[in-house]
Every structure is written in C-alpha cells, then in structure tokens.
C-alpha cells in the first residue's frame, strides 16, 4: 500500500464532515446571466400561453375572448414569473468547494442537494463557455465520471480564470491519483 | 493451447460457411420486415397476383440476398495491426467502414451462438472495449477454432490482465475451483415463480399489436356493435371472467416456464483464477466472461414462493459504456440456493457479509407521503366521479377497501426498505412482492449526493443517491444526519484507499 493514511477502523464522528465546509458562492455576474435566461424562457412561456388566442384570431372570423384563452394566458404568465423567481433566488443557494480529495457542489432552493465527487473518480474536466456566459467572462465547469446517467457534475457561473485554475488543479490531482492506483494494482499483481 | 505466431497479422476473412449464415440472417431480416405483407398476401390477395410472378419475384430476391451475403463475406476483413498495436475490422458492401480498436483497450471477448449460428456451426465474436464512446465490435461468423484462438490472442494483449488469461486457456481443466450447472427442475421452479407481471405485459402487448394490425382481416365480417351485443346478451358474464382468468394464469405460467428454459437452458458457471465463465441458452448460446473487479452492482431478488424453495435470482450490473447505454449489460444467475449464493458472495466480495455494522430504516413520513399520494388522492377522485352514479354505500365501501389495500401495500414497501451497512459493503433492500437486495462496495461509488426538500429540514430527513458505473441507487426519506455521516465515511474510504473501481 502506498498512501500515508491507512484504512483503519475509525469513529464516524472524527471523519472530515462535508456538511461543515464553507462553500464558495458562484460569480456575482452569473445572476445577470440567469436573469437574461429567465426572461427569455419566460417570454417563451408567455408566447405559449397566447397560442389559443392567436390560433383563434387566425381561424375564426368573429373573434371573441373566452375564459379558456384567459386561463391559458394566465398559466403562461404565472409559470414565467415563478420559474424566473425560483431560478434567480436559486443562484444564491449554489456554491462549491474543493477539498484535498474531492469536490463539493451544493444547490437548491426547494430541493437542497449536496453532491460530492472524489477526484479519483473524475475522468476528465471540461470548461464550457456559451455565448451568454462568455459575454460576462464566465464559464461552466463539467466534471465527467463513469457514473452513467446524471453521473456528471456541472458547476455553472465560475469566472474564466477561476475555472481554468480549478480544472488544472483537478487534472493534476487525477494524474497523481491514477499513478497511485496503478502502483497499487501492480503491487496486487505481484502478490 | 498452442498459438500460431503469425495468426491474424494479415487481413483475414471469416469462415466460408459464414456466407450461409450471412444469407440466413439477411433472409430472416427480410421475412421479419415483410411478415404483415406476406400474411396479407396469403389471407386476402392470393388470387390477384399470378403464381409465376410470385415465384420469379422470390427467386430474384433470393439471388440478390445471396449475392449480397457473398459480397458481405468478401469485404469483411479482420486483423491485428502490429505497427499501431490495434485490432482492425474492415467491412461493408456499398458503404465501407474501418474500425480500429487499440489492443490494450479490449476488455472482454465473448463468443455467441444464435440459432442460425448453431445450424452452420459458427460463432459470433463480440469485442468490448474500454473506450467509452466506441461502438462494440462484432465478427459475425467464424469457426469454433478460429473464434477461440482469436479470443485468447486478443485477450493476451491486454497488459493488465495478461497473466490471468493465458492461465485460463492453458489449464482449462485443472484450475476449476467450482463448476455449477442449473438443472431443468431449477429452471421450471424459477419459471413458475418469477416475473408474472412482465410476462403478462408481454402477452397483452402481443395480443394488442396482433389485433390492431390484423383486426381488419379477421373481423371484417363483424361490426363492433354486433360483437358487443353478442357479449352483452350472454348471461354467463361471471363465468366468462373466471374462465378468462384461469386461462390467463395458466398461459402466463406456461409462457414463463418456456421463456426461462429457452433463455437459461444448460446454464453453467465455472470459476477459474477468480474469473467467472458463464454459458447458457437453448436456441442462442451465450458465453460470457465476468471478472469480479468489474461488477458494479449485484442485485439479489427473492419472493415469497422462492423463499419457500430456497431460490435466489442474481443480477450483476457491469460497467455501462457510452454506446451500449440502452442495452442490457447485466448478467443473470437465475437460480442459486442460499449456500451457493453465499459461496458466490465470498468469491465476489472480499468482506464479511454476516454481521452488519448499521441499519437505517426510512422515516414514517415515507409511508405517510406515499399513502397520501397512492391511496387518499385516487380515492377522493374516485368518490367525486362516482358519487352521483352509484349508491353512496357501495362507493364508500369500495373507497374504504381501496384505501385499506393501498395502505397495506405501502406499509409492506415501507417495512421492507432498509439501508444496511457492512464493513466495506452496502446493501439496499426494497420491493413489495419481489424483494431485491442491491449490494455494492463503497469504492464503486462515482458520485454521491444527499438532498432534502426544504420542509424536510426541520424533521432531519433526506435522501441519499449513489451513482455507480452500473446504475444509480437511492434511499429516500430517512435520517439526514445519519446519511451525511455515512457519506463522509464512504468518501473517506474511497479517497484514502485508492482502490480502482474497475
């Protein structure tokens, strides 16, 4: 075995706790990105709400407003506002942290969720910049694992420099880890 | 086995008899695609087209398929390229393709025999590689000798597993630690006790598609109303229902037994050097190699009847790679007794499974929430709909019976659910009739998350999800603080031990 700390029996309470880690919030400008996105999505919702009315305008000759059209518009508007509010308030709840051996990402206004990915399970890291993100100098970090569906971890709204340095840090750790794994496996083979 | 040194270094074709296999496969495809047309032709229009044309037409079709299968054979080459250390397959009649698999990425080589393969005595060689996006490679028809030779040769290139494989092929007879065969009787028992709902679904789906497609042929003489009237006027409704029920149950059992026997006929497992070799199948034979290190999730299922017969059903989830995501990559061991199951566990997991360190049950809110969703809401809707149609006594009696039944079902589900933690092993139990235990080692976890809905915060309850390369496992509505402690423990184990997950 190579590592310094061996896997002896230990008290559950003495382990490092991921709940107590202080999280780094996302970049402030990310809120603006979310605001713009929510407005666009909201507009789409409202347009969908207006579809029955438009359809009626085009097809019928004598047009009159029915309650069913009003309800449809109302639903569209309510969904538009709700999603915008939830998304924008949600930004403050998101945060991430790097520890020596893993990466923590916390999110959620309604469903509060903490996700942890150990470095020795990350296969590769991608820094992604969309048009909107790039115009604010931000990027999105994607950590790929072998965990199949939903096995990847995505951190949106990190400044470009930060993202690059996180990526470099994690990649460096992955290399270190894989060397360790290989040497342990060789040990096992020799046994 | 002695290996030829120069084998497969130059582009090699498949076995010549493979042309016949190709031909049969293409014909099978054609016939399958045109079944509706053929049936329609026989039933309806047999007089409209003169027979000579039919004969000439099918003759031309045969000829074309024969030429095509010959060309497919001529253009199919496989070889090992020593310069790039890779295995190369070139194929295609009109659109040509070349697939290159680096030898060191080859994970698994499987020999399969479908029914058509059996007819002409050839094997299909399937090559799984580690590259997550690469498509699986298959050589559809080669003779047994070549298949075996190719398999051992390809596997011998895999650097990390090299020792294992040469040993396996060299001492096939000596090194067997354990050979097990499942008897026909076990399979019959299994067929009588498993997957009723699945088979019922299959039978119903079959009948529904059958009637949808061909109802215009068979029922053209009756109008819907006539049929309906015929049904209405008969006074023996309850007898008919009973009759249908009996027929359906025996049909399900029969189909089940046949299905299980067809699938798992002659099932045998042998263990060599900690590697499992599995063979099974009646019409199509499967030949799978399984390494314990690649197991991600192990599911053990048993229902009430099977518990009485001491029968377990095991399902092994291996790594799901990019291309084969939709495909079922699990291997099944359909019938094990408790002793056999424990022996298997000892081989697969290095750790104690006798005494657990810790058990976690769901909070009673797990039951309450599901009771509300599955019992109270449907019952309320039902009452609102039928209130005015039937006597309130009947409605309320039905409503109470439904609530009681659903409540009990949900209570059973709630009671079965357990998260059991062993040293270096996790077990999650769930189910209603079929109780499934999902086992995994903490070092197989790729990603881990704990979550709670905001109103759950003050009651300290939450949900755990473990992502592995063989699928996800989650445990809902239980003590959140215990979950965070457990996840800290598992993270510590993953991060400190540096044990690979594959």
TrEMBL record, chain A:
The chain crosses the membrane at residues 33-55, 67-89. InterPro entries: YdbS-like_PH. The keyword Membrane applies. PANTHER family: UPF0699 TRANSMEMBRANE PROTEIN YDBS, UPF0699 TRANSMEMBRANE PROTEIN YDBT. It holds the Pfam family bPH_2. Keywords: Membrane, Transmembrane, Transmembrane helix. The keyword 4Fe-4S does not apply. This is YdbS-like PH domain-containing protein. Residues 95-169 form the YdbS-like PH domain.
Automatic annotation (TrEMBL), chain B:
PROSITE patterns: INTEIN_C_TER (PS50818). Residues 73-150, 265-340, 424-476 form the YdbS-like PH domain. Pfam families: bPH_2 (PF03703). The chain crosses the membrane at residues 20-43, 49-73, 190-211, 240-262, 367-388, 394-414. Keywords: Membrane, Transmembrane, Transmembrane helix. InterPro entries: Intein_C, YdbS-like_PH. This is Putative membrane protein.
């Amino acid at each position: 075995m190579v590592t310094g700390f061996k896997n002896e029996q230990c008290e559950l309470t003495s382990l490092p706790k991921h709940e107590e880690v202080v999280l780094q919030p996302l970049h402030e400008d990310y809120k603006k990105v979310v605001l713009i996105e929510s407005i666009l999505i909201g507009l789409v919702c409202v347009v969908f709400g207006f579809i029955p009315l438009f359809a009626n305008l085009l097809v019928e000759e004598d047009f009159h407003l029915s309650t069913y059209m009003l309800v449809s518009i109302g639903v569209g508007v309510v969904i538009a506002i709700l999603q915008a509010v939830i998304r924008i308030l949600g930004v403050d709840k998101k945060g991430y942290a790097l520890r020596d051996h893993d990466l923590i990402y916390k999110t959620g206004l309604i469903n509060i969720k903490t996700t942890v990915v150990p470095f020795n399970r990350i296969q590769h890291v991608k820094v992604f910049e969309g048009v909107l993100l790039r115009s604010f100098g931000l990027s999105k970090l994607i950590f790929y694992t072998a965990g199949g569906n939903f096995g990847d971890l995505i951190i949106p709204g990190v400044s470009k420099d930060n993202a690059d340095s996180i990526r470099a840090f994690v990649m460096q750790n992955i290399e270190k880890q894989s060397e360790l794994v290989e040497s342990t496996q060789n040990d096992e083979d020799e046994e | 086995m002695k290996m030829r040194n120069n084998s497969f270094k130059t582009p090699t074709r498949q076995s010549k008899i493979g042309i016949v296999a190709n031909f049969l496969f293409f014909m099978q495809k054609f016939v399958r695609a045109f079944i509706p047309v053929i049936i329609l032709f026989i039933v309806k229009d047999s007089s409209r087209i003169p027979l000579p044309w039919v004969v000439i037409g099918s003759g031309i079709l045969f000829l074309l398929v024969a030429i095509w299968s010959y060309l497919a054979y001529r253009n199919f080459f496989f070889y090992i390229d020593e310069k790039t250390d890779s295995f190369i397959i070139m194929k295609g009649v009109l659109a040509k393709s070349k697939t290159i698999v680096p030898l060191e990425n080859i994970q698994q080589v499987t020999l399969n025999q479908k029914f058509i393969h059996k007819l002409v005595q050839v094997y299909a060689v399937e090559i799984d590689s580690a590259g997550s996006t690469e498509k699986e490679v298959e050589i559809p028809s080669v003779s047994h000798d070549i298949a075996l030779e190719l398999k051992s040769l390809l596997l011998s290139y895999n650097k990390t597993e090299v020792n294992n494989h040469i040993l396996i092929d060299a001492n096939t007879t000596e090194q067997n630690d354990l050979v097990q065969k499942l008897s026909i009787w076990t399979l019959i028992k299994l067929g009588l006790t498993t997957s009723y709902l699945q088979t019922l679904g299959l039978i119903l789906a079959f009948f529904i598609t059958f009637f949808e497609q061909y109802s215009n042929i068979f029922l053209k003489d009756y109008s819907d109303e006539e049929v309906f009237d015929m049904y209405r006027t008969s006074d023996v409704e309850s007898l008919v229902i009973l009759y249908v029920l009996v027929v359906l149950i025996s049909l399900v059992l029969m189909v089940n037994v046949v299905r299980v026997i067809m699938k798992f006929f002659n099932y045998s497992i042998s263990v060599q050097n900690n590697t499992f070799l599995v063979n099974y199948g009646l019409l199509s034979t499967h030949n799978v190699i399984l390494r314990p290190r690649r197991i991600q999730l192990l599911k053990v299922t048993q229902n009430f009847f099977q518990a009485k017969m001491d029968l377990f059903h095991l399902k092994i989830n291996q790594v799901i790679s990019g291309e084969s995501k939709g495909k079922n990559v699990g291997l099944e061991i359909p019938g094990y007794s408790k002793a056999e199951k424990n022996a298997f566990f000892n081989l697969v997991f290095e750790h104690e499974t006798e005494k657990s360190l810790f058990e976690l049950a769901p909070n009673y809110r797990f039951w309450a929430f599901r009771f509300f969703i599955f019992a109270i809401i449907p019952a309320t809707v039902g009452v609102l709909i039928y209130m005015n149609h039937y006597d309130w006594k009947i409605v309320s009696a039905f409503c109470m019976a439904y609530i009681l039944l659903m409540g009990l079902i949900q209570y059973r589900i709630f009671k079965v659910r357990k998260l059991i933690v062993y040293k270096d092993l996790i077990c999650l139990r769930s189910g209603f009739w079929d109780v499934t235990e999902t086992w995994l080692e903490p070092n197989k976890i790729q990603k881990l998350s704990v979550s709670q809905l905001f109103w759950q915060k003050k009651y300290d309850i939450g949900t755990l999800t473990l992502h592995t390369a063989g699928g996800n496992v989650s445990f809902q509505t239980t003590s959140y603080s215990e979950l965070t402690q457990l996840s800290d423990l598992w993270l510590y184990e993953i991060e400190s031990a540096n044990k690979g997950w594959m």
